[in-house]
Specification:
By secondary structure, the protein is mainly alpha-helical. It is 77% helix and 2% strand. A hairpin with a 2-residue loop joins strand 1 and strand 2.
Length: 428
């Protein structure tokens, strides 16, 4: 009789997990073949289960490097798969081209499950299995996405990989000359975070909501540029009365997203103290923008709604990234000069003026550096800059639309600046 006391319980559980996961892979591959009207062929549920069990046993029997038994089993499996692929080469049309290769890849994955379960954390094993199952189960969706995605999007993704995976690790974490509190890596991390959030908004607009209505256009546009969204909405409101009915609400939705996006960037970059201090004023201003947007939407419901078209702007142009980094450093140097010579009052004037440009690099440079002013002055400068940026958008909304329907939205944008100043004067 087998003495089960000699079998380690953990090893038994790991073997059971390998068998179950291999069985699940086999079931999913079988379902995939049935959905594609393919024959059973190589890689049935039983075969994949045994392949997974064999990989586990061979890895365990080796015990140490070199893994001769496991590598020998892998070679045998690879030769077996090569013979099967050669046999099916004449039936490529029947198997859908790449369909003949897919069972071989799943078999290799099943053989690797044992070592994965034995040596890697559970989350990695689960992630690998989830990816494999999704690739088998979501073929129609993947094919639609592949057909819909232009070739240029591969270049766009490569740009983001350059920004985040190549440039960022190579930059030294040493201070920039003249700015001892700001390092090269810190500047580029801000570039990556801003680009990443903007890129997500771009993907959502371009592929998930390509025909978004006016209100959703305001939300998505606010993810990567509330000012650009305001300009487009105002211009289209002037040209089309249907857009003009919903453009005011959409403009305020873009502004609400500006507050949310800016706060999330501050959190992601680890400026916890500033995030806590800005949570209440930003939250109130965001909620106020949403409330007024809801009221304006109710007012415009009776009009014939026409969707505004805001072409999604790719935020991952490398020159734009370098421009952002340059502005970050320039604003940091300018802030250091102003605070050193004019103190908090000078910083407040500077922040008001910067609000008429791109406030993201200014805000992040404020939080990254150590200047001759206190934290309260830094928080005040952020509120002033965001408020004066709303003043700029109010001007765009009225001048470019020339529509009275835009007046309530412009009034709220001006009021948000006044509320920000009131918070600074009488707030906690």
């Amino acid at each position: 009789m087998l003495n089960t006391a000699l079998l380690p319980p953990l090893l038994l559980l790991q073997f059971g997990a390998t068998v179950v996961l291999s069985f699940v892979l086999g079931l999913q591959l079988h379902s995939y073949r049935r959905a594609q009207d393919e024959g059973i062929g190589f890689g049935t549920t039983r075969t994949l289960t045994l392949v997974g069990a064999a990989g586990f046993v061979l890895w365990q029997l080796d015990g140490a490097q070199p893994r001769g038994l496991y590598l020998g089993g892998l070679i045998v499996l690879a030769l077996w798969l090569a013979v099967d692929l050669a046999r099916q080469a004449g039936n490529a049309a029947e198997n859908g081209g790449g369909g003949a290769l897919l069972p071989a890849l799943i078999a290799l994955l099943a053989f690797a499950l044992g070592p994965l379960v034995l040596t890697q954390p559970d989350w990695l094993v689960a992630s690998v299995l989830i990816v494999a199952i999704l690739m088998l189960a979501e073929k129609p969706l993947i094919r639609r996405l592949s057909d819909a995605m232009p070739a240029a999007e591969g270049v766009t993704l490569a740009k983001f990989m350059i920004l985040a995976g190549l440039v960022l690790p190579l930059l030294p974490n040493t201070p920039i000359p003249g700015l001892p509190a700001i390092t090269y890596a810190k500047v580029w991390l801000a570039v990556v975070v801003i680009s990443g959030i903007s890129y997500l908004g771009y993907l959502a607009h371009a592929y998930f909501f390509p025909k978004a209505g006016t209100l959703l256009t305001g939300v998505l546009g606010g993810v990567y540029s509330s000012t650009a969204a305001t300009v487009v909405l105002a211009r289209q409101a002037r040209a089309d009365p249907g857009v003009a009915a919903q453009a005011p609400a959409a403009t305020l939705l873009a502004t609400a997203m500006m507050y949310l996006r800016l706060w999330l960037v501050i959190v992601v970059l680890g400026h916890w103290s500033a995030a806590l201090q800005l949570a209440l004023p930003f939250g109130l201003l965001c909620a106020g923008s949403l409330a007024v947007a809801g009221w304006l939407w109710q007012r415009g419901r009776g009009a014939v709604a026409v969707a505004a078209h805001l072409a999604p702007h790719n935020p991952l142009d490398l020159p734009v990234a370098f421009l952002f980094a340059g502005l970050f450093v320039a604003f940091a140097a300018l802030t250091a000069f102003v605070t050193g010579h004019y103190g908090a009052a000078g910083l407040h004037v500077l922040s008001f003026l910067v609000g008429f440009s791109d406030i993201d690099p200014f805000v992040l440079s404020l939080l990254a550096g150590h200047y001759q002013v206190g934290d309260a002055a830094i928080i005040a400068a952020i509120l002033i800059a965001s408020g004066s940026n709303n003043l700029l958008k109010a001007g765009y909304a009225m001048l470019l639309s020339r529509q009275r329907t835009m007046l309530p939205a412009a009034a709220w944008l001006v009021a948000s600046l006044l509320l920000s100043l009131a918070w600074l004067a009488w707030g906690p």
